[in-house]
Amino acid sequence: MNINYIEITNFRQFKEKMRIDFSCFDSNKITIVFGESATGKTTLIEAFKWILYGKSDYNNEYNHDVASKIGENGKTAIVGEIGFDYNNNSYSVKREKHFVKRNNKLKQDSSFDNYIFEIRITNRNGINKMYAKDDAKRIIEKVMHPSLFEYFFLEGEKLNKYGQDMSQGKNGQTSPFSRAVKGLLGIESINTSIKDLNVVRDKFMSDFVTMSNDEKTVAYQNSKRAFKAQNEKKLEIMNKAKKEEEAYKGLVKEKEAEIEQNASAEEKQKRLNDVNERISKLKILINNERDEIFQRFRNDGYKYLMKKLVKQSRDTFDDENMMYKGIPGIDADAIDFIFEHKRCICGAEIKENSDEWNTLIALRKNIPPESISSEITKYKERLSSKEREGELFYKSYISKITQYENHINDLNKEKVKKENLDDELRNTKEVSNIKKRRDEYQKSADKNKQQVNRLYFEIENNKREIEKYDRLIQSFEASNKEARKYKKYSDYCSYLIDKITSLRTVKEEEIKKTLSSEINNMFKKFYDESVNFTLDESYNIHIVDKNNNEIKTFASGGQNVAIALAFISAIVKVNAEKVSENDLLNEKLNSELYPLVMDAPTSNFDPTGLKNFCDNIPDVTNQIILFVNNKDGKLLKDSLTGIIGKEYTIQKKGTYESVIKEENYE
Q: How many domains does the chain have?
């Protein structure tokens, strides 16, 4: 498909009739339209959409200036036309929308058929044929379905969003993107054919049953159909379970390989766990010992600190002049008793002022309370006791300090062991976690296997039921040839359905594999990253690193655009190739090359990305139309020299008017 021209009048800021003729030559396949922001580049994308499908992202497509100058009952119209070549025919698509001003507002003009939509198709022999309205709509949807439009007529912001959604796997089996891909590659047409064949088959079978006019046959057919429907659903579920089982088995193998790779780490991890446990216990023990040492010092430390004072006291009281000079066992009360009775304890009389009397007086002075010698003796005994207590405290305290220091040393040794083990385990994975994941995957694989086995037996049982009803139906089949003819038609439809379904499955897998390869090839031309792109059954993109680990957050703005361009480029390339050697599929699989029309595709690229874009985008398809901002213009022109066939500039004449001028390009 090549777009030859677009012509618009009174469409948004293009008040006057404007026309762009696009370059369609392989050697000069690129047309560039330059324009500053708000001049109308995006408007041109919307003009394509409006002409082809009668809708755009604007509330009003008409030019505001023209609308404001129309008087009451005045009329105006939006006119657009696109010319393109498709499947060896030339197409001219024209759309008009007429308005009349009523009560100072533009409304659709009901005085005549205000909405004109028609297509003129010219074949290679120059024969023209006109189509209008619904017929024209069906033709456009066949040439390019509306779901495909936004992937070949691309705006910069949407391009970035498509890439972001693709890189995060946000498409899904029923998403517009998935349907668009299937539609472009012809898969959706095949699915439609299968559905149509099912309808035809059921109609033939219904006719057969009606003509055979047998209630039992009807009942048997209904039962058989019910079992077949069950088997189709069960088979679909079983195939999905098989894929999931294989996927989980693959994950189990990966985890077992990781376990083997980290086997030595498991033993080191156990040692590390023991070390951590000992460190924890030692810290608790050391804290308790430190608290105990402080507490003991607070309670009994003075005993050791008094040791020197105690010794000095003892040395002082050991002086002879301070020795006790009294009579052992005799206290002051006893001597006072002798003085009072004037007799010795032996019975002899003692006279006052005699030698004996004076001797007792001298003794009396050395006996408490008049003498401290006996108190000194007792005090010295207490000093000896305190000295012994101080020695015992010192020995016990030193022992506890030594024990505390030993535990500190033990803790430091364990910390060194921990550091060494941490270093050895730093680049290894926690084996227990790996084993846990492996067991989870194995459990999931076993669960899917059980489901597969259960469904297999259920399907086999249903097959036996179907065979039973087949035999019963055959025994009750009507004898007339007309009924048997419809039965044969129904059987042939079933054969075609099975055949096409099988071929579609094989072909779709081939297409996905080729798409993945082309996406990787194209993306690496933009960015040299160590990643790979894969497609799942829903056409979601999954990004994995060199170790096959999925990457959830990957792309920048420029990389998002590169992903989207890589995907779309891959689709274009795969679509353009002869996709099947099977005639049955070739009729449905599309092989037309579509052009790429892009608005500001390089706005998110840095200079390197922009250069890579220019180096590789020309190889994507046979026609490329670029609407670009002037800031990217010079580098684009310099990089695309030799393959630019047409060049235009959009110039702003006023708030509501822009014009398009063709530049002389050599």
A: 2
Burial of 363 (0-12, 13-18, 19+ CB in 10 A): middle
Residue that terminates a domain, selected from 342, 370, 398:
370
What is the per-residue pLDDT across 488-527, written as a single tens digit (0 to 9) for each? 888 888 999 898 888 888 888 888 888 888 888 888 887 7
Query: pLDDT digits over 560-594, tens only?
Result: 777 878 888 887 777 766 444 444 444 444 556 78
Pair 659, 33: CB distance under 8 Å? no
| Residue 105 domain boundaries | 2-144+594-662
Tens of pLDDT along 606-664?
778 788 888 888 888 889 999 988 877 778 888 888 889 999 999 998 888 999 999 87
d(Cα 448, Cα 437) in Å, to the nearest integer? 17
Each residue's pLDDT tens digit, 25-34: 878 899 999 9
Is residue 234 in some structural domain?
Answer: no
Q: Is residue 119 part of a domain?
A: yes
The span from the CA of 586 to the CA of 572, in Å, is 17
What angle do helix axes 557-576 and 607-616 make, rounded to 10 degrees? 0
**For position 605, which CATH number holds?**
3.40.50.300
Q: Is residue 612 part of a domain?
A: yes
β-sheet bridge partners, residue 99: 76, 108
Q: Which residue has the tokens 């609407």?
A: 627
Dihedral (Cα; 493, 497, 499, 504), 10-degree rounding: 150
